[in-house]
Structures are given as structure tokens and as C-alpha cells.
Amino acid sequence: MPTLIPENTLPNGMKIFCIRKEEVPIIYGQIQEYFQFGIELHEGDTVFDVGANIGLFTLWIFHLCKTNVNVYAFEPIPDIFDVLQANAQRFSPEKIKVFPCGLSQESKTMNFAYYPNATALSSAYPDGSKQQRNKFKNAILRNLKDAPSQVRWLRWLPSFLRSLILDNKLEKAFQVEQVTCQLRTVSEIIREYDVQQIDLLKVDVERSELDVLLGIEEQDWPKIKQVVVEVHDLDNRVKRITELLQKYGLSNVTVKQEPFKEGSDTFNLYALRDLSKVF
Predict the structure, then answer these.
(1) Do 57 and 33 contact (CB within 8 A), yes or no?
(2) Residue 79 in contact with residue 19, Cβ under 8 Å?
(3) 126, 117, 52, 40: which is closest to 85 by C-alpha?
(4) What distance in Å separates the CA atoms of residue 249 and residue 221, rounded to the nearest whole number?
(5) Residue 49: half-sphere exposure toward Cβ, Cα within 13 Å
(6) Strand runs labelled E in the chain
(7) What is the distance, to the nearest Å, from the Cα of residue 275 to the centroid of all Cα atoms in its chain?
(8) Parallel, antiparallel or unpaired: strands 96-99 and 46-50
């Protein structure tokens, strides 16, 4: 007998499948941060959702564009992909194409760390070290007033109790399973599906973002009109990605750190092609 997938209802009324109900409002709040600094979508647009998780961003833009949007959604972790696929089939398997793979610089298989208690942290480049957990905890404690409601209530507790509760939550969140995943490239998908234009390339892949962008061949860059990418600023990566996008004509670049992530190494980068210039 198949395992029943939990369901949840989003603020916009959509009933969706999920893995952990506690994660849904957190991710749902984050995805709406993507539509800033000139990023916009229209009916009939084409979107690549790289690091789709269970599909909350995909379903948000499906609703935003009144069901008239073509989405290519990529999720490499098998358990998460199953839920993404269930959501796509529930709403529109024709408009929402889902892929059981990640995107990278080349096609290959790779081991991923899957965190079933915090699926959004799953990564090909995991860091579950004590030092990383402490950085994560300290960032939360510094920014509790801007934190998701699921942890914001901690600010009313004594500091020692906040720390103890967060230690317990993070211990559970970082329980890990190793899985083997398939990776492909953006340009392979463009060729295979004859994609003529990508109106928005959204990338949220937990430290693999540069790999994704390096998998775009030179002749395919002009097809990409807008990019939103979560960047972990390792080895000066914000600067490297900004320069890469500008090199290929996405010259209007804005970098912003969400208030909740202030002091961390995680930023959102928004880029738009300057259509007044010939590439």
C-alpha cells in the first residue's frame, strides 16, 4: 500500500501535497521574496525552477499567471521529487514539467545529503558541522524579530532557554540520509525540449548555484531574460556570479540579504537583461 502524502492548504487557497507541514509556511514566505527589483512574470511565460523542492514556487507562479505558464521544475532528491510530481499531476502535468534530477555544470551522478526533517537544506555540498550549526543558530538568535513565526516566539523566552531549544531543533534538522542523484545541465534541457526563451531562471540549490550557471552554454545565455538566485557567498561567489551574469548581458543586478539572514553568508541576487543593448 503506498504511503499517504500529507496535505496542506496555502494562504491562496491551493491544497498541496507536502513532506513536512511545518516547512510549508517558511518556504512559502521565502518564495515571495523573489519578485522584487523588477522581476516579474506574465501569462504565457516560461520558467526554470531549479531546486524546486515540493514545488511551492512553481505552484505560486502557476497561480500568479492564472495557470498560463510553462514551468520546468527540477528536484534531485527522490523523496522530495515524488511530492513535487504529485503536486504537478494534481494541477497541470502539461504546463508543469518535472524532472527527477538537479542541474549542474555537467551531466553526472552525485551523492547528496538529504535532510528529511529540513528538506530545504538538502545539498550536494552539505555542511552539518558543529561550527556551521552554531553559525546557523547565532543568525537565528540575532534576527528573531524577522524570523518566520515558527521560531519568532522564542524571543519571549530567556536566552538560555532559546539556545537550548534551538540546539534541539537543529540536532533534529541535521539528521541526514545519503542519496545518489542525477545531474544534467540547463543547456541539455534547452536542446532536448527546444526551449526558445526562459523568462525567469530561479535557482535555489544550497551551494550548487555556481555549478548550475556554469552549465549554461554561451549560445543559450541570450534566451534567459531574468535570473533570481540564492547565493552562498563562499570564495567570493556573489561577485563571481554577478560578473558572470553581466558578461552575458544580464547587466541589471541587485544583491539583497533578507532581514532574517542578516549576518549570514546567504544572499538573493536579482538580474535582468538590458533589452536596450544588443547582446
Answers:
(1) no
(2) yes
(3) 52
(4) 8
(5) 29
(6) 7-9, 15-17, 46-50, 70-74, 96-99, 102-103, 108-114, 177-184, 200-203, 226-232, 252-256, 266-272
(7) 26
(8) unpaired
Question: How far is 228 from 245, CA to CA, in rounded Å?
Answer: 11
Would you give the distance in Å from CA 140 to the centre of its chain? 19
Spatial separation of the C-alpha atoms in residues 99 and 182, rounded to whole Å: 10
Cβ-contact 269, 254 below 8 angstroms: yes
Looking at 164-279, which runs of residues are DSSP E strands?
177-184, 200-203, 226-232, 252-256, 266-272
pLDDT level of residue 278 (50, 70, 90 thresholds): very low
Distance between CA atoms of 207 and 123, rounded to whole angstroms? Answer: 7
Residue 16 has pLDDT above 90, yes or no: yes
Instruction: Report the alpha-carbon distance of residue 21 to residue 25 in Å, rounded.
Output: 8
| 143: helix, strand or coil | coil
Per-residue model confidence as pLDDT tens digits over 209-265? 999 999 999 999 999 999 999 999 999 999 999 999 999 999 999 999 988 788 888
The DSSP 8-state label assigned to residue 220 in this structure reads: G
Q: In what order do the strands lie in the sheet with 177-184?
A: 102-103, 177-184, 108-114
Instruction: State the sign of the Cα–Cα–Cα–Cα dihedral 101, 83, 232, 136.
Output: negative
